[in-house]
Amino acid sequence: MEWLKAYRDGEIAGKLAGLLKKQEGFRPVRFMEVCGTHTVSICRHGIRDLLPPAITLTSGPGCPVCVTATADIDTFIKAAELDGSIITTFGDLLRVPGSKSSLQDTRAEGADIRTVYSSLDALQIARQNPGRQVIFLGVGFETTTPTVAAAIITAEQEGLQNFSVISSHKVMPPALDALLSDPGIQIDGLICPGHVSIMIGADAYEPFVHQYHIPCVIAGFEPVDILKAVVMLAEQVKSDEPKVEIAYNRAVTREGNRQAMSVMYKVFEPVDALWRGLVVIPGSGLEIRPEYALYNARERFNIAAAEAKDPAGCACGDVLKSIKTPADCKLFGTACVPEHPIGPCMVSGEGACGAYYKYRQMQVQQK
To answer: Which domains does the chain have, with CATH numbers?
Structure first.
């Protein structure tokens, strides 16, 4: 476990922060931490306070619950209203507001909605309740989607006809491409997500370096991991030599987990998808292939909801696009608090607003 102690070493973190503050002739830059787990770690450990004024860290679209569109939440609620259905979901989704209510409200009205830790738990519930339809709400990136694909394959092999999935799964590279191509969004470097990168591999970010001339560094989640990534990004900016680097090589490789990706694409196919704050992004969603149509709850029960507007006044979409910080939202910390969230960024355990609120990151860094 010596390697784990090293990545949690406060002295090393202090040296990295000192190294950053000694940088000279450094122009102001904005580095996006794409992953919601990175945002939480940055807030928890006060990493922004360790950085020189020239370096600003800003959140991105790496919280899967946060980028789930209101229309998808409404679809989940419609599924919960089906007679005799059992809805299985991750806990973060329960309190995310739809256009009129939430899954938590629907459960309070009598719907059978159960929190699970994985799609395999949902599969077990289907085995235990052969007379009822069990629907798993599929939300997540490449990190968790292969396990959902494996559950569908298992259900087919076992002949389970009472298990299905509503897929709101998404893949990360198209969303990053959409952000980087937007002239209104200023990003000078990407702290690439650790968990997703384990699956897709470092090579997935090479097109961004070549097309947008932007540095990319994959980071782990300990303070030393994140500070090391920031140092590497700063050095790339100073040398004007952008590339893809790995600051999390104890877990991430260049090629990624090809076996997991193969399982994922055996069951799912790319489709255009609506992201909260980012509108429709071509090829950024994953839908269940026709060969597994029996397990596609959206089609099987005809429960797709119409497109719906995001909550009035909520800046969650702009936070996900790195245009605003949570503190820039007029609702943040007043009308929108964890006990009464208006947007998903305040609900999710990986949401930027929730992390800022919990760790009192109230001050906006000067650009």
So the answer is: 70-171+256-300 (3.40.50.11740), 316-358 (no CATH)
